[in-house]
Design brief:
mainly alpha, membrane, transmembrane helix
Length: 40
């Protein structure tokens, strides 16, 4: 029996997911930095 190939939704490869996560974390860092400066 052969193992079914794992399907990755939305992106064609895992590289897309890694870039999305890194971009999301960078966005969160930017938002929290702005909040810190705004309410300081």
């Amino acid at each position: 029996m052969t193992e079914p190939k794992e399907h990755i939704p939305l992106f064609k490869s895992w590289k897309g997911w890694y870039l999305l996560v890194i971009a999301f974390l960078a966005l969160l860092i930017g938002i929290f930095y702005w909040l810190t400066k705004y309410f300081a």
